[in-house]
């Protein structure tokens, strides 16, 4: 190509096309370089027939090209037509191998072609060409692919889609769209939220699952690829499923080596970091600009606006503001002080630790999904037991946490730059404390969706949030007057590890010295007696273990393994020892905890001569409890069948306490010896039912009860996600006549749950709508006296068990046998 151009645009995706179209409209000399033989390879590689969204809907589109939501084929045809009509200078089959030179005199080397000379360069190359490859055994097998071109090509296959972002969801939906193809489609999500995906896509996915066209596997990740099979790590252990084809859509990373070779600096050394950019998209290399997905801003409408804007900046339009400026200006209007949008964004980015490494573009996108607040000194931000799943970050000022419900004067400060409300974000629990502003304070409130998306897409933010979680867990568990400064070194050295169900974390007899904190899930502690593993105890989330070997220098006295898929934090033993040396009160607490655990060990040791009898029986009983979901319960109903007389008073009382619908099935469930686990909610530490509840209708109460409020829309997601079958979908029944009316006049169906036929007949007579809603045990929240099932049991057979009582229940079964 002869002659130097004003700007060379590399990449013809939405950002590059929009930039080239704007350069054409301004009469700016340019060239649009595309390495393939067609325009917009990003959209071109979408699956056939894909519906392309135009979000955010409230953002104005700035571009000389048209774009609205529609089919992939229609959008490509429109752009091809407009590019041709506008006479955009396009160079196809131009693979760039290097960019050298300085601002005003760049040379762009092309594979097999003459180089291009340009004054400035705009990189719009995206990230799609660098997919994250699966790193697991069998990943080289031919039925694993990273691209889906045409979902209509596949028939009668068991297909697993790995990846919970928009690309994975859209691929899964395309493969399951036509029932005539008879595909069995499964999508895996290692978490419980589809944080990376658009809300509309998640809604379509849930609808497909409800219709039986899709299988959603939450808390599941691939472990090994085999011919015709896929081994999965699930919350309950490994499982092998039939799998004829795997579509892996696990994201992509910037082509860092190439970009850095151009002289561009990235925001950090983390592999997922983005280039450092100025507000005009210029990189650390003067004259080279970056736009689009490579800038960390992947939505099509955003990309097209950036393409337009970068050319305007190069043309001297320094007063141009981004298209989202009016939206953000309105958001900041209520804050004190006269600052521009850019100044506000920089203040929040610089002052809040979790946002420090975000680019101005990422800050703008995050702020669109967040709220900002100005609090007066003493103003209450939220109250203990309030419902709420958002997270707050302090940009200026500080807050006080009222740690005592009885004495509001007992407080702990949280200062500028930190976060609070993270417990509601992670677990869905009600607010654990009242928080008020200690002084005039500016805060940023991130919705659950925005916070989870931030953590999923910005590694620096995830690391910062993770550090705060670990620090506060340490302070909460160990207490003893510790401060954040006391545990800083320990927190810095901590490592978070995912542990699959059944995996051993500590092996009895081993000589390692690290200690562990159960961050999520639960652990089983076992001791080898006579060559058999004997259950010692259960460790719920929030427990710590491994300190005995650290404190007294002994070898491990027991084996600890994951009861379900869990997450632990590992701390170096030598650092914990140094902390104990500095903090005598902490050592006293650790020694007291050790004494309790040694007591359990001594109990088992004292019965070892009768192993094969009582100890073995006890161990198997305890293991049965864990295997039946008590390993993640906070409150579970158990029935001693030696005392149960089958009167069904428990079910009747449950129904009479809950609008005539029982939340309990006494006869269902499993039994070991005379200990029965009926079908009733376990109120899990991390409730599976909370995942993908569109109206956020499932909450946790102040006493740990998991309940469904009246905003339920009856989608059934909770029923499908519950692994224990304790949620039912049913219509709210008509009001029954009272007990006296039934006794004296025979009115109504009598005590307990009304039959379906009676409910249906009464509903039809009244013309009531029979919409089904989700129904589950709420531990009789708000009912005086506690759970009705326990109160109504005439023999004391029904008991409610918390994790602290698991061991005593197992001993009780042993002693009464």
How are the secondary structure elements laid out?
Elements: E1 5-10, H1 14-26, E2 30-33, H2 41-44, E3 51-52, E4 70-71, H3 72-86, E5 90-91, E6 96-102, E7 105-110, E8 113-123, E9 144-145, E10 158-162, H4 166-176, E11 184-189, H5 199-210, E12 215-218, E13 221-226, E14 229-234, E15 237-242, E16 245-248, H6 256-261, E17 288-290, H7 300-314, H8 325-332, H9 341-351, H10 360-368, E18 370-375, E19 380-382, E20 391-396, E21 399-402, E22 411-414, E23 419-420, H11 422-427, E24 434-437, E25 441-446, H12 448-457, H13 459-478, H14 484-493, E26 495-499, E27 504-506, E28 515-520, E29 522-529, E30 532-540, E31 544-545, H15 547-552, E32 559-562, E33 566-571, H16 573-582, H17 584-606, H18 614-627, E34 636-640, H19 649-656, E35 665-672, E36 675-679, E37 698-700, E38 706-708, H20 717-721, E39 728-731, H21 739-745, H22 756-766, E40 772-775, H23 788-792, E41 798-801, H24 806-816
Parallel strand pairs: 1-2, 1-8, 2-5, 8-17, 9-16, 10-11, 10-16, 11-12
Antiparallel strand pairs: 3-4, 6-7, 7-8, 13-14, 14-15, 18-25, 19-24, 20-23, 20-25, 21-22, 21-24, 26-33, 27-32, 28-31, 28-33, 29-30, 29-32, 34-36, 34-41, 35-36, 37-38, 39-40
3D architecture notes:
This protein is α+β, with helices and mostly antiparallel strands. The chain has five domains: 5-129 and 253-323, FAD/NAD(P)-binding domain (3-Layer(bba) Sandwich), CATH 3.50.50; 144-248, FAD/NAD(P)-binding domain; 326-459, Jelly Rolls (Sandwich), CATH 2.60.120; 489-605, Jelly Rolls (Sandwich), CATH 2.60.120; 635-801, no CATH class. The protein is 31% helix and 24% strand. The protein contains 24 helices and 41 strands. Strands 1, 2, 5, 6, 7, 8 and 17 form a seven-stranded mixed β-sheet that branches. It has a five-stranded parallel β-sheet with strand order 9-16-10-11-12, with helices on one face. A hairpin with a 2-residue loop joins strand 6 and strand 7. The longest helix is centred in the last third of the chain and has 23 residues, at 584-606. The termini are far apart.
